[in-house]
Amino acid sequence: MAKWLLILPILCAASAWSQTAPFESVELKHIGPTSETDTQIQTLQNHVKQAPDDYAGYDGLGSAYFQKARETGDIAYYGLAEQTLKKALALVPQDFRAADPLVHMAAVCMGEHRFSDALAYAQKAVGTGSGNLAAFAIEGDAYTDMGDYDEAATAYNIVQSLGRAVLSPLALSYMSDSRMAYLRYLHGDSAGAIQLMKSAIGAALQTNVPRENLAWLYFELGERYFQAGDSQNADLSYQSGITADPHHYRSLAGLAKVRAAQGKLEESIELYQRSIAIIPFPVYVAELGDVYKKVGRMNLAKQQYDLVEYIGHLSKLNQVLANRELALFYADQGIKLPLALELARKELEVRHDIYTWDTLAWVLYRNGRFQEAAEAINKALGLHTNDPLLLFHAGMICHTLGKDSDAEEFLNRALKTNPQFHIFHAEVATRTLEDIAQSHARDLRSSNAQR
Q1: Which in 239, 286, 361, 384 has the greatest CB count within 10 A?
Q2: CB 134 within 8 A of CB 103
Q3: What string of DSSP letters covers 276-315?
Q4: Is residue 423 within 8 Å of 260, Cβ to Cβ?
């Protein structure tokens, strides 16, 4: 465990930094060379010291802290961003000039999974009459994460209709296309989602966005390709994300997932190690544990699994951010199942998107509450999302309820979409289909014998 002690201070720092005034200079934790964001933060820290009544300075500093949170995955920067933006909101005149800090605060709330707060800030920004299109965009983001997809589509459509009049085509594409892509994907149009993600990336490349933002777009494209079973293009997309930002831990983990699916397990392990050395995101720590388990290194697998729990409970914000991930982790491992159910239900209080319903369904299934699991998975399937993991969960629930024709359909769809969608679940899906086929054969032999 000594290895992990080197990276845990990144997360522990959140509690220490909460005592630091946001306009004082704070020591930035660097990942690689000093970035443009680091320089911007230091410049703005100096500025607000010299101009303590300048709301725009605090707004810029809060936005820079939020960008730093994106770049590092370090939740401490969310706290700094929120403190700084509160100062900006206290100073700004209550007119159209308040829109920018309100939008930035909404973005911070989104990062902290405070979706109703994000929605409230975004709508307040809309109410200033400034015409700030980012307010509508974040309104749509909040609705998406809360599972209010029709309202999300309405907000995004406003971005598109108003944006045509005030934004360049490239700026509008960057702001809108990746968001619309996710809604397309949720509604089962994976091909359409991929095309929109490509459009967003093309716009980002021509508008000189921060490298982390570009890497995130490539990562999202990789996710769409991987879920569609196109490992070659997923590989290229994740590698492009790493090229855009060599410290983009999500792209590194995405490429690790592809390598595991390709059977290149040692390469997968190395990539996961690089990812979680940057930030030990619980999902990727668990996935590394799965690869160690696959190659028979059970002690190392257990270390990763233990670390998942530790990170999830390290701070109050970590607990909020990790509800869904921990619930799925416990369900997959078959441990702490009552706690998994508690976490899943807690997440459902905050958002009702299809993936929260899917998590609840899988946790209920693992707790032996099969009929309730079926009701939850039906809600998760409501948009006809073509996600093989979701289809796998549905198939296993149907199989347990004796609905084998439905189970066969869901499991076959999962494997047809991506035969290597999960390092263990894909094998379970295959074995379950074989069991169903054998059961059908036995029933047929029995029926023929009785004739």
Answers
A1: 361
A2: yes
A3: HHH---HHHHHHHHHHHHHTT-HHHHHHHHHHHHHHHTSS
A4: yes
Q: What is the pTM of this model?
A: 0.88
pLDDT per residue as tens digits for the range 408-420? 999 999 999 999 9
Of residues 264 and 350, more confidence is placed in 264
Distance CA 122, CA 183 (A): 19
In the chain, the amino acid numbered 295 is V
Q: What's the rounded Cα separation, in Å, for the pair 157 and 11?
A: 38
Q: Token pair 């024709």 is at which residue?
A: 405
Q: Which residues contact 194 (CB under 8 A, 6 or more apart)?
A: 181, 221, 224, 225, 228
Q: What is the dihedral of CA 57, 61, 64, 70, to 10 degrees?
A: -140
Contacts with 124 (C-beta within 8 Å, 6 or more apart), sequence order:
98, 102
| Interatomic CA distance for residues 391 and 190, integer angstroms | 15
CA 243 from chain centre, in angstroms, equals 21
CA distance 336 to 312: 14
State the Cα–Cα distance between residues 283 and 338, nearest whole angstrom.
Answer: 20
Lookup: tokens for 6: 């080197």
- CA distances (Å), 337 to each of 200, 325, 333, in order? 40, 13, 9
Contact (Cβ atoms closer than 8 angstroms) between residue 285 and residue 307: yes
| Amino acid letter, residue 270 | E
Neighbours of 405 (CB within 10 A): 9
Q: What six digits make up the tokens of 375?
A: 């009701």
The conformation of residue 267, written as its DSSP 8-state character, comes to H
Structure tokens belonging to residue 421: 């969608």
Task: Identify the residue whose tokens are 């707004």.
Answer: 59
Contact yes or no for 388/421 (Cβ under 8 A)? yes
Instruction: Concatenate the DSSP letters of all residues of 84-107 into one string.
Output: HHHHHHHHS-SSGGGHHHHHHHHH
pLDDT single digits (tens) 318-344: 666 778 999 999 999 999 999 999 999
What was the pLDDT predicted at 70?
A: 84
Tokens of 449: 């014998």
Q: For CA atoms 266, 330, 359, 430, give the dihedral sign.
A: positive
Rounded to 5 degrees, what angle do the CA atoms 4, 10, 16 make?
130
